[in-house]
């Protein structure tokens, strides 16, 4: 990736500084625009929020790469049966060096817009550099929100490496998200500067405060989550996303709902156990991982114990009859009924509805279409990649990675000492529109916070 790109521009777009408005202006400019982003959810959100005028194409970077490879298989050198997105990215980069393809793209689009540029991998950056050499291209992103680089450093590229060849560079400077809270907006700007400089964060804004507790547990959350508006709890860093489900399970009175990330391991274990014939164990174990107080459901404990050895239960509880039916045959209908019995019990609290809903939808498809559960789940996952998961109306809890791109009226950050990168800290602090509470255990040092 050498040489300058005279028709390429980069906009540094801090969180809440009007990036969406900038993209919307370009989409509605009347130009033929190709808008590239990272997820199908982002594509669909843009379609719902802004509409898609004639001549505008919205798709993911990987979908664009795959489309080029399938249209020009000889130029790309990529076999049509390939499923590896990185191979598609390499092949598409090769396709873009063809003069014929360059002519076709110039006849189709006036401009390219790339969203969330900071999340691009090395191969995606190479692809976009090749595209920017052909068409006027504007990339919008923020180096302080590049969380995905933390997950896979081998594919990461520094912001400087991504943007050094892009001639025109600017930065959005006004925090529009907090236009009705100028003091908080100014504090967000100062905090950003401090993080970029490696300095501790000063809590000199009344809307952001530290709440000290004697123990890091969830009992205090119900006292903090009072008042109208949307509430979110950020728990867990980008590399260790298990804390949210633990917090929601062990403190059910907070009524927290977990926001899931990617393909949870629990769902993989569920399908593996089901396909291997341990169907009762698959269903009961998944319920136990998604709902609290399951032991209060009559028959649940004995059925779960027997399911470990795939033996029928002798309990007379209605749940046991369904569990025994699953031992004998693969019955999605019985599995769905078993789930309903547990969830209908007044003492159970479903704290991972997104996870359990995926399993239920897959079971419904398996039942109505007589398809294997694994294939049914693949269909559900494909639908969710395009539709996304609605956070719901109640208080939610998730890792900082899952909260990226979302905003809430009030945010509570627990175990802030786990956030050990400027990117994680910045994303966590900028999710709140009105108030942010940082919960710190007495005596616990938080290196990124300035001393009071």
From TrEMBL:
InterPro entries: DNA_helicase_UvrD/REP, P-loop_NTPase, UvrD-like_helicase_C
GO BP terms, alphabetized: recombinational repair
Annotated Pfam families: AAA_19, UvrD_C_2
Domain UvrD-like helicase C-terminal residue range list: 397-439
Single GO MF annotation: 3'-5' DNA helicase activity
GO cellular component entries: cytosol; DNA helicase complex
Superkingdom of origin organism: Bacteria
Record's keyword terms, sorted: ATP-binding, Helicase, Hydrolase, Nucleotide-binding
Protein name: UvrD-like helicase family protein
Organism (species): Luteococcus japonicus
